[in-house]
Amino acid sequence: MKILIKKIAYFVSPFFLIYLVGVYFYREDKGDLLRLGYIADIYGYDIKDIFQNELFRKKNYTLFSELDLKKINKFTALVIGDSFSEQGNYGYKNYLADSNYISVLHFDRYSNSNPLELLSNILNGDVLDHIQIKYIVLQSVERELVKRGLDLNKNGQLKTDSLIRIFKANQEKKKENKSEKETVKIKDHFFSQKTLKIPLRTFLYLFDEDAFSSAVYQVNTKRPLFSTGFKKLLFASNDYNSLQINNNLANIILLNNELNVLARKLKKRGIKLIVLPCPDKFDFYYDEITTKNNYTKPLFFEHMGLMKKEYIYLDSKKILTEKAKNVKDVYLFDDTHWSPIASKIIAKEIRSSMVIQ
Question: Alpha-carbon distance 230 to 39, whole Å?
């Protein structure tokens, strides 16, 4: 009997060890790159430690879903964007609103995943009849911006009555999700994805920068770029995969044409358009990668600089490169998004581009 127990223990021990590694090193509360790449959390990087004061700043902006659409609401700027505009208290929109003379209205993201299309739908509907604004900040992450312009459906429209239903449905969904989280305890199974993938990916990253098929690249850098002290950079594989579309000058011309059309439509309403592309992490840190010659150089911002624009354009890559030269943690180490350092700089640039009377 003792021999049988020992044999079972010998057999089970490796699997139990793999389970413990997965549970301990896979953190749901850390950055999206660690989760997407199933990368072991061995770097000791925590946004709550580095930017603790910024995370708990006062909320200065207003959500569109908080408005009373039965009356006219006045704001300096309306922000329409993706996850870079959803960073809450440490996001650029909150720093922008941290002023006595600039008020910011943020359009809840869940109403449409394409900011350009959402703006087009707003222009075709009656939403702007219920708000008075001077500027619209149209933000998109670099890897998605060109595709969003090429896939733009200009025939849709957004009416306030349908918008109210969307917001109400989302609130109900949030309540349901919160209730489920409070009542359901999620258990880690012995052979779940994470418990198996983390040890495997950790091993594969020793031989290949994207572990042969990961959603995240892990590359070496010339110097430490983050507070971890490691000469490592994590970035999403989509940053690199999008280059086929984003490096095509003809696509950039088409995107710019669509942005100019939106700017002209807004101008007729007395509104100025500010376009804010957010650099992909791969693009922003490209020159710091030791093996950069193995990767195609991103050309999006170079191409955009050549375009004739009828809108206010913020070259955020150039701005951050100049204003935060040699500064660590401009982006978050374990995440695709920039940090409060970048948010503050971008907010200041947006504010400078505005003419407030």
Answer: 15
